[in-house]
Amino acid sequence: MTLSEGFTIAATSGPPGPLVLASPHSGRDYPDGFVATSRLTLPQLRRAEDAFVDALLAPAVLAGAPLIAARFGRSWLDLNRAPEELDPAMFVEPLSEHPDQSGDRVAAGLGVVPRIAGFGLDIYPGRLRLADAQARLAEVHAPYHAALGRLIECARARHGYAVLLDCHSMPTPPAAGGTVPEIVLGDLHGCSAAPSVTAAIEAHWRRAGFRVARNVPYAGGFTTAHHGRTVDGVHVVQIEIDRALYMDPARLVRHAGFARIATVLGTLAEHLLATVPKLGLAPPWRIAAE
Predict the structure, then answer these.
(1) CATH code of the domain covering residue 189
(2) Contact between 246 and 26 (Cβ < 8 Å)
(3) In this predicted structure, what is the pLDDT of residue 4?
(4) At CA 110, angle to CA 107 and CA 114, rounded to 5?
């Protein structure tokens, strides 16, 4: 296996629609030698995964939305972090200083090259070579986001706008506003997507019977910040799904709830493909040109 095989794209038949799907944390493969040199077992490393999210999205792909999904596990490389989110303490060589190195996620061990996996366990027995991290970024992280950018641009070029759903799973979160949300939508507090897009997604989940929160505790990550450009007609919403709804988190095994979540994601794609053309999402210059 080469690092260039770092993601897959499930395309749709027919012309591109305005909707794109991404699953940056569902990868379950690891490069040769990584598990053997880690302090952790494969089951421990897999605790960091958003297991089966790519499979949950299969009905949404059939509805007409292409999906880009990670192949490598999040314990090895986190595709929803900025490439500068590196922990200087993890490396043999000194790093060039960057503000992202001092962020909360890096401090918690959850940078672009994570220091910890599930249960806060250290992944590595010692420090890494900087060249190792740079290879992961150059051969997987950069190509993934370049490919995602092309999917978005293909949709935007045809329709004048694009909507990206960046899909994740989460541990059961703490109560927000007195209730425990089952779905958390992140749009960087209104900065990465038009309010009408987030509202349409929220309404769909609520109609399906789920408790929904916005931006707490997850407002979005690198994908929403990097690709969300409402001024250019690109709208990005992160969707976090309580993984206990569709699998046993302790054993990483699907249960009967899997089919329900997959169905709701499929009907969400159908709903958005029918609804977003009516929301006026194209930037003003596009509307004026028509």
Answers:
(1) 3.40.630.40
(2) no
(3) 56
(4) 115
Looking at residues 125-151, what average pLDDT do you find? Answer: 97
Six token digits for residue 128: 């890494």
Q: Say whether 118 sits in a helix, a strand or coil.
A: helix
Give 199's contacts (C-beta < 8 A, 6+ positions apart): none
Contact 213, 183 (CB under 8 A): yes
3-class DSSP assignment, residue 46: helix
Residue 163 pLDDT > 70, yes or no?
yes
For residue 90, give the nearest of 129, 119, 117, 118 by alpha carbon.
129
Structural contact between residues 117 and 123, judged by C-beta atoms closer than 8 angstroms: yes
- How confident is the model at residue 3, as a pLDDT? 53
User: What does the pLDDT read at residue 1?
Assistant: 39
Q: Which residue, among 227, 216, 233, has the nearest Cα to 289 in the 3D structure?
A: 233
* pLDDT band for position 288 (cuts 50, 70, 90): very low
Domain total in the chain: 1
pLDDT band at 283 (very low <50, low <70, confident <90, very high): confident
Full residue range of the structural domain in which residue 278 is found = 3-289
Q: What is the pTM of this model?
A: 0.94
What is the three-class DSSP state of 284? helix
In the numeric block, which tokens belong to residue 26? 């569902």
- The sign of the dihedral angle between the CA atoms of 263, 192, 147, 108 is negative
The dihedral of CA 142, 145, 151, 155: what is its sign? negative
- Tokens found for residue 47: 């605790």
> 234-242 and 183-186: which strand pairing?
antiparallel
